[in-house]
Amino acid sequence: MSAPASNPTIVVAAVALVRDGAVLTVRKQGTARFMLVGGKLEPGESARDAAIRETLEEVGLRLREVQLLGEYESAAANEPDHRLVSTVFLAEADGEPTAAAEIAEVRWTPLDPAGLDDLAPMLEHNVLPELRRLASAPPAQQP
């Protein structure tokens, strides 16, 4: 049996909730890496709707001010030899997140996570640099 021509792709939607110089991250049960809140889209569901649903299911927060941050591709954190395509939204939410569903732990991860070695590749290499860029940009350049 020959290997597939390309790595399988996982398509997800995720949410970046930023407060006080940190972004909300979660670690799923049985995994070691922290990532954004989010997950796979259900059939017929838009990325935005999936991000809103997953945030409520995983950390009990209702989102407001949901806007597109970007679409990113990286290695998947927990599935070896898989690629991850993630549509990421920047949003706001009131209240404090609480781990629910498959989430084992929630953490506010600094936008400049010096010394942390437990971040998902998409978060570390794509989203955090973009969030740092936005945090340092003049207000007129922010989405």
From TrEMBL:
Domain of life according to the entry: Bacteria
GO molecular function: hydrolase activity
Boundaries of every Nudix hydrolase domain copy: 8-133
Entry keyword set: Hydrolase
Cofactor section: Mg(2+)
Gene3D superfamilies listed in its UniProt record: Nucleoside Triphosphate Pyrophosphohydrolase
Pfam families reported for this sequence: NUDIX
Protein name, as recorded: NUDIX domain-containing protein
Organism of this sequence: Nocardioides faecalis
